[in-house]
Specification:
- The chain has about 110 residues and is mainly α.
- The chain contains six helices and no strands.
């Protein structure tokens, strides 16, 4: 594949491809790495990415939905329900943090311990 064809494939000028190929320029941008691997149709498992999948539909806990609907219909909420809703939402945020930290929490910066 020519440098010109490769540049067109990944959206960069031929001169940049030449510099990278010649070792005079490094590929450090995550965006550029993604464009290159996508342009070359590198499979996700070789890129270290999970296979894409359809997101599962989510619906709130039925009790949460009922309490919110009741409060909305009345135009106000009682303190007990407000506290309960706050606890449920806090639990969801903590769960998202745990899931996110396991998936995206890896640090690769200059201060990384890896």
């Amino acid at each position: 594949m020519s440098q010109l064809a490769f540049g067109s494939l990944v959206g960069m000028p031929q001169s940049h491809v030449s510099l990278i190929e010649g070792g005079k320029r490094k590929v450090t941008s995550a965006d550029l790495i993604a464009r290159i691997t996508e342009g070359l149709e590198v499979p996700n498992e070789l890129r270290g990415l999970p296979e894409p999948h359809e997101p599962e539909s989510w619906s709130p806990d039925p009790e949460l939905a009922d309490r919110i609907a009741h409060a909305h219909a009345r135009g106000r909420i009682d303190v007990r329900s407000a506290d309960w809703i706050a606890r449920v939402l806090a639990e969801h945020r903590r769960a998202e943090d745990v899931i996110g930290a396991g998936t995206f929490g890896q640090s690769f910066g200059p201060n990384s311990t890896r």
